[in-house]
# Entry
Amino acid sequence: MEEALRRIGLLDNEIKIYLTLLKMGSALASELAEKTDFHRVYVYDVLKSLTNKGLVTYVIKNNKKYFDVISPNKILDLLKEKEDEIKKQEQEIQKILPQLLLLHKPRKNRPIVEVYEGKEGMKTIFNDILRTKKEWLTIGGTGHVPKVLPYFIPGWHLKRKKAKIKARAIFYDTKNGRKRGKEFLNIGLAEVKHMPKEYVLPATIYLWENKTAIVLISEEKPYGILIESKEITKSFKAYFELVWRMSY
# Structure
């Protein structure tokens, strides 16, 4: 019942007062306030709204305003009014639609942004690198990925080598970063440099083809934001080359 009333545009507090008044028959605002635990002033505001919607009426007896609901059949009338209003709006939109379409100038090469959560989301990002078979660049590697995907990453690197995908990675100059850098070199088809740990960023950046992935590696819940944009990736690749030259 309440859901049906919401669909015709009533708010939750309007529904509560309407149904309470429906059960009580006729009541003062103070009586409704006592029944609903709402402040009397607030009850007056809601009753005014319901009156404007044609669902509540009132009479004055002995200088007191008694409220009552109009027949629930009024709800059907409200629905009919809404249907008529929607039809009018549709007709108006149809009239101006050609003009709106002429004014609309869609942006070309609009970036596509996707969010991937959890370990499966991370796998999706890594598998896309394999699919494109383009050079893979990493900025700000922490060395924590194997801890998050311990069974997936070794096999993934074997597939990377088989697909002859070269990798250049800039790891932080930390214990984990140094360790992971050596592992990268041992895997092959990889160049590694290190950047000072003072420049540690909260996320790692992966670059390949026309895609940029900003990845937060967390054992609890890793997630990444994947941006497909030639222009954005070109800018990040220029940034990568700058950091690459400054790293050791």
